[in-house]
Design brief:
The complex is a heterodimer of chains A (about 325) and B (about 290). Chain A is built from 10 helices and 12 strands. Chain A is of the alpha/beta class. Chain A has a domain of about 90 residues. In chain A, helix 3 crosses helix 4, helix 3 runs parallel beside helix 5 and helix 5 runs parallel beside helix 6. The longest helix of chain A is centred in the middle third of the chain and has 18 residues. Chain B has one domain: MetI-like (MetI-like fold, Orthogonal Bundle), CATH 1.10.3720. In chain B, about 75% of the residues lie in helices and about 0% in strands. Chain B has 10 helices and 2 strands; from the N terminus they run ααββαααααααα. A two-stranded antiparallel sheet of chain B has the order 1-2. Chain B is elongated, with a radius of gyration of 23 Å. Classes of the chains: A alpha/beta (about 325), B mainly alpha (about 290). Chains A and B meet through strand 6 and helix 3 of A and helix 7 and helix 8 of B.
Chain lengths: ~325, ~290
Amino acid sequence: MSNKSLLNIDNLAVHFPIGDGLMRRANGYVKAVDGVSFSLEKGETLGLVGESGCGKSTLGNAILRLVEPSAGHILFKGQDLAALSPQALRQARFHMQMIFQDPYASLNPRMSVGASVGEPLLVHGLLKGEALRDRVISLFERVGLGREHIDRYPHQFSGGQRQRLVIARALALNPSLIVCDEPVSALDVSVRSQILNLLVELQRSMGLAYLLISHDLSVVRHISDRVAVMYLGRIVEMADRDTLYRQPLHPYTRALMSAIPDPVSRARRNRQRIVLSGEVPSPSNPPAGCNFHSRCPIAKDQCTKIAPILELKSNGTQVACHLVE
Amino acid sequence: MRVTSLSQWLTKKKAWGVLPFAIILFVFILLALCAPLIAPLDPLNQSLLARLKPPGFFANGVTRWLGSDELGRDLLSRVIYGTRISLLVALLSVCVSGSVGTLIGLIAGYRRGWTEILIMRAVDIMMSIPAILLAILMVAVLGPSVTNLVIVLGLTRWPRYTRIAYAQTLVVANMPYVTAARLAGARMPRILFHHLLPNILAPLVVVATLEFGLMILYEAGLSFLGLGIQPPTPSWGAIMNAGRDYIASAWWITVFPGVCLFLVVLSVNLLGDYLRDYFDRRSMTS
């Protein structure tokens, strides 16, 4: 990994203590994120996929330090966010924003949407009065809303329009990184592609980098440059989008890919389905060795003992598995 | 749809039912505001010749509609001026306890950690002490006066607001729009007053209304015990306290302020209940 990357995550871990009684003594830890490393370049989209509870949202929150990382480094433009004071963090967050899953809860219902979108500019003391209003209008136009919307309240907007407003707010400070946490999963299918196309268009014009967190493989495929697959707090496979979707290597990724319904191609419809047995183990007590071995169809003896590390394979994919060559 | 029209009909019916009580409260507020214009006589003017006269007593060209008290003062005028003191003390103490309690609850719910533990345990302790006992104790130390009464009532009643503000803040603080405000660089006061407070206000308004009725009762109670408003200033509780000695021979001194007290507290409580239902319905439909 080069230090020129916009974002460099190095061995990041988030362990939540399982509390006990008044003194909150830790009895154990939920290892929501357990040693994740990757990098993100300027203007690039990294898709992060995995099932519910695998730690992908926690990872997104930890990168913005909305939850405190327990270990590891977050290098953003060469600055380690994990070590910043609250004051310095406030300045660093200037360049990073977030888009949330639920557009109905992302806007303060008691604030006009114009005030919500302009808030980042106001609290940083960048603009006020007429200048602020003009800038908010131009942000509204950028996401496809009109100036007549500016004084309305969130309940007057549809889900898709609200997500546009949330995007406008995220753009207000001209960030270079936006963490998109399930940005379209709460939206109607008909609105999804509009929002995704808006994100792509904004990326082109503003050089934004996205960390796109989603459980929806087709959404990730639609706009990602690279894709990372997470299982139980760890990245099990990371590759270019096309490589990953054409030739998944890790047994977990293969199982995920085989679950995509495909109405078009008869060949793919008739292909073998890999059905995983059992449930995802609890992240407070993950299996020893490779944490996927309890559900892996090809697990061998060594998988129960030694945890595999993410290694570069011949086709350029990084995979954490002993059995993939 | 039938369901909505039914609920609308119920709403209307309920609003009509609560109207008479709103009018009663409005009349008392008017009495308090315009006491000097409405009261027929000076509430402090004594006339020993007209002591303990029954309602409707006529002398020297004035009718004493509600009779006179043990020093010959006009009871109607004293009750009207008493409205002023009773409502003022209740309003101010609700303002003090409401703002203090809400602020503390907001901080506890947003900061969490040790702040939360300290504040919420303090609330538990305050709630376990009978408020009237604490108020008596504090008045005994500070001495009785209108200001002290407000301070005492304000400082004993804040935990009720704190509990509700805290519980609501826990819910709202996890909303993505609060996270977005943090990411936008908003500092704690802005998050508390722009993002949290407006979204937790509805249940607090209901509590404040109900507390307002209770504060009128507390003021009357403390004044009745001789720890609140001091003679000769008229307040409902103080008038009732003075009338206690004559209750067998001059019932009107105790009964009329008591009836006023009953009417105001009843109206305020019914309005509070109505507000609670109103906000409930709104939170369910939104």
